[in-house]
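**Archive record**
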Amino acid sequence: MDRKAHWENIYQTKSLQEVSWFQPKPETSLAFIEQNNIPKNAAIIDIGGGDSMLVDHLLNLGYTDITVLDISASALERAKARLGNKASLVSWIVSDIAEFTPTRKYDVWHDRAAFHFLTNENEIMHYVSLLNDFVSQDGLLLIGTFSEQGPTKCSGIEIKQYSENKLNLLIRNTYNKLKCEYVDHLTPFNTIQSFIFCSFKHKKAA
């Protein structure tokens, strides 16, 4: 499957309210950010952010260094159009996370519902290497994936389910787990999707 073509088609044919992951306000992500007292000048990257509303809320809260990455150029163009003049305050990156090599480190790495699309072991290990190398020492990882009680597919693509323990095992050499919670996401179609959402702190340099 051509992953990029698949997602471009999704964003070119469905509105924001017609995709299962739509949230008018990303309550869990914003709560985790608030709980960790993230400075307003922290470098934040939203992985697979597409045209989600998180960037709108972060800008409204006064955050000044925001990057949104997505495989779909169409998704990012939709977000830019929605933000209008504010779009110039955000860095936009069109890239498949499985092929991404950052040019800087980030203080906050946020990923809601992107990581679980990586089912190939090499891609998963590449992602973990990015977390090890491109999140600031003492930086924060916020990651949400489908739980083991959640869907096995999304948008016609098989995903990899995670538990708190499975997520922790992947990154425990570099991160300390702070908090995990299960979240039931109500889709626009009135169905429930079970997520596991966790926060991790990058271990300080020895």
User: Anything to note?
Assistant: The mean pLDDT is 93. The helical segments are 3-13, 27-35, 54-60, 73-83, 121-134, 164-171.
